[in-house]
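If you are new to this repository, start here. Below is one unmodified record pulled from the training split, so you can see the exact layout before writing a loader.
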Amino acid sequence: MKDTSRNQSAELKHAGLKATGPRMKILEIFQEASLQGKRHMSADDVYKALLAEDMDVGLATVYRVLTQFETAGILIRHHFDTDYATFELDDGYHHDHLVCLKCGAVEEFVDREIEERQNEIAKRFGFKLESHSLSLYGICSACQKKEAERNKKREEGMGKPE
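And here is the target side for that same chain:
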């Protein structure tokens, strides 16, 4: 844990930020969540994680730190067709997103053909592509399964005589 704190402190200092307790803890939350496969977190997710660890950090502080991390290049902010922003660690590799319109699940993917096609389109229009963001919206397999089960139960309920 001590080594992790040292790494977090160095990362914050490298980004030009003082290594305060709330900043280090919020960075740790993102790092741990990322290791567990939950790379995208809202300010509320972070706040709830802090509360679960009995950290006395207000929601306004969470928003302020997230904005500072975004400005410093530690986090990337996304608006996935929701009323709130989600954040992920900027680990330097480009990827695109699939977003579930029902539950909000986010899956990351990399597709070389899509990347090549985007570059071809930019070139055709005389653009030198600097960056892009691609989010595809649909219904995830878990939500599709739940919906199919609900429909099946509904149909079974309608078919029974009274």
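Two things worth knowing about this chain: Residues 1-91 form a domain with the Arc Repressor Mutant, subunit A fold (CATH 1.10.10.10). The CA atoms of residues 52 and 137 lie 31 Å apart.
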